Amino acid sequence: MKPLIPGPTYHEMLHPETLPEPFRARAAAALTNELDPANLFNITWRKPDGGIRYVVLPKELTGVEANILVLTARWFPSGSHKVGPAYSTLMEGELAGEISPGANVIIGPSTGNFGIGTAYVAHLKGYSAVVIMPEQMSAERYQRIRQYGGELDLTPGSESDVILVLERTEAYKKDPRNKILAQFELLPNYRFHRYVTGRSALEAAQAHGNGHVAAFVAAPGSAGTLAAGDEIKARFPDAVVCALEPKECSTLFNCGRGTHRIEGIGDKMVTLIHNVLTTDYVELIHDDDCVMGLDLLECRQPLVERTLGISDGSLGGLRGLFGISGICNILGAVRMARFLGLGPDDNVVTIATDGFDRYPSVLANLAERAGTPDDAGLNSRFEKIFRGGGDAAEILDVRPREQKDRLFGYKEEVWTAFHYSRPYLESMKSQSFWDAEYDRVGAIDAALARARHE
User: Fold this and answer.
1) Contact 188, 336 (CB under 8 A)
2) I need a labelling partner for 439 at 20 to 30 A (CA). Which of 20, 319, 372, 378 fits?
3) So what's the pLDDT on residue 159?
């Protein structure tokens, strides 16, 4: 059996400055070599100076008085925060004695970023990896997985056909050597985002407005990111958590089904790890608003600056920070701020899961489909995307009991088919289930710290 490659605890991912000095030194040196295993210790929302990586969007851009804070994940190892849940799931499996390098193959069901993170962490820890994902995702996603040595097993369809990915995953479970990093099902995903992302979001908000978080807005793929909302609500019970969906695949909103172009979200189900108890609203976002919005912010900045009447280069600091789901989250945050009537003391926090580097092919497809409008057409496009949407017909209050029951019904429909018992699913209807899973962080960290010294 190969020796285990060490990695950080949950607390060290939140506070890398608490790493033992030898690990900190190795992590700093590894920044120049992406494939150095010491990069596991660079899984964090923090910059080298200790601050959280985020931007506050210019109010000229958002058109709302509230502060829109966007945690930016492009500097995580592998280019997305999904590497955190991938690492955490593998790490917990190793601690439990269920996974070891040389004995097991890592299987990552995904629509992109989690699969990239799976291939990356597996490579650093000495495992072979297979990533199961739909065949109509961006070319850059496939390239990155292969770059890390991952094997691809492609299923029919696109983002909204992830149920076929889960069905393919069942076949891999028949071989005991295969270990599934099941992001839609396993609670390390929840623990990472509640502890690491949630606390990072709270820290970022301290420097703005009243220091509180009025709303946390994110689109669920696995729904792991929404777990940050649980931590935010634990600190600020009046905070609102809003889940975003494509208009074209409005499953949480009204059991809608359909295909869409927002890679990484909108998967035609309530995932097992989605704590629907803490979701207050569901909001619909048109998929091409996100693709065209990315084009405007990434490729048309001078025109947007002229439209807004701000100085040349004012938006330059945003270039490269966002992907399509990041634009979705930004639009959702802006529209939720407008819907709630939030003011300059209020903070709305959201997430940019990845950066622009995995979407040039998507914008090339946009140009083929829609051409390039003249300046007047692009101005009209900006007004529609950044000043439109978010009316009451596209925002659903899911706090009433009948809405919770409906969402639990969706969850049971999917997950009983994948062999989860009704008593287990019933236990998820209590916040105590989620808090107990979260409270395991301390024991897991202690076990990992001991293992690193053995």
Assistant:
1) no
2) 20
3) 63
List Cβ neighbours of 111 (8 Å cut-off, separation of 6 or more).
Answer: 133, 134, 137, 159, 162, 165, 221, 263, 264, 267
Q: Same domain for 63 and 92?
A: no
**pLDDT surpasses 90 at 262:** no
Are 69 and 102 found together in one domain?
A: no
C-alpha 406/C-alpha 46 separation (Å) is: 38
Beta bridge partners of 397: 281
Express as a percent the part of the chain with pLDDT over 70.
98
The amino acid occupying position 330 is I
Same domain, 12 and 66: no
CATH number of the domain bearing residue 132? 3.40.50.1100
**pLDDT recorded at residue 266:** 57
**Whether residue 164 is found in the same domain as residue 215:** no
Angle at alpha carbon of residue 435, lines to 433 and 439, rounded to 5°: 120
Gyration radius of the chain's alpha carbons: 21
What's residue 160's pLDDT? 64
The single residue listed with the structure tokens 């790490």 is 91
Tens-place pLDDT, residues 349-399: 999 999 999 899 889 999 898 888 899 999 999 999 999 887 888 999 999
